[in-house]
Write a structure and sequence with these properties.
The chain has 182 residues and is mainly alpha-helical. The protein is built from 7 helices and 2 strands. It starts with a helix and ends in a 22-residue tail after the last helix.
Length: 182
């Protein structure tokens, strides 16, 4: 029997034919959800025990690595001209690849300014060519407006190549507080 045939057979055997089947399936699913919840709780408890045993050592090692790497970085920055040959930004020392790269100069806003205040200043700049050199304009589809006006502008929006696709979602919540699902 092929896997496709097995899948079809399984789907048919799990099909719910009537309300009593539905009730039985809900009972089975609820019991499995309670079992799942117990397994997750057992897993979490075991994980907590492992965390208590190993996390202090792991965190101490991570802190020591961070401390050592900060000292290594400070030394490399101070001695970059002697550590890195001409036009090389990386070097291998004692089993570690060290590299030093420039970000090319990051543009940031000065204290007391935000990107919005800078953009507002550029928008009011009298020299439009200068202002345009530092602003970008990004057009994007306003899907909220299309959804809100779909009934009145459906033909127009469809002629542009848009569709409104509605989907339903199903959700089931089990009452897992009771241990006995029957």
């Amino acid at each position: 029997m092929s896997s496709l045939t097995r899948a079809k057979s399984a789907a048919r055997s799990n099909a719910i034919a009537d309300v009593p089947d539905l009730e039985l399936s809900i009972t089975d699913a609820r019991a499995e959800a309670i079992r799942h919840q117990a397994l997750v709780a057992r897993y979490n408890k075991a994980k907590e025990s492992l965390d208590e045993l190993h996390l202090p050592s792991i965190e101490a090692a991570a802190a020591r690595i961070k401390e050592l790497e900060a000292a290594i970085e400070a030394f490399v920055v101070r001695r970059q001209k002697t550590l890195f040959p001409k036009d090389r930004r990386s070097v291998q020392i004692n089993g570690a690849d060290l590299s030093l790269r420039s970000n090319g100069g990051a543009i940031t806003t000065q204290k007391g300014h935000s990107q919005k205040t800078v953009i507002d200043a550029l928008l009011t700049e009298p020299d439009e060519d200068k202002a345009d050199a530092y602003l970008t304009w990004k057009a994007s589809l306003n899907k909220d407006a299309a959804r809100a006006r779909w009934e009145t502008d459906e033909d127009f929006l469809r002629s542009l190549g848009l569709d409104l696709t509605e989907t339903d979602s199903f959700r089931i919540d089990y009452n897992l507080a009771e241990a006995d699902p029957a």
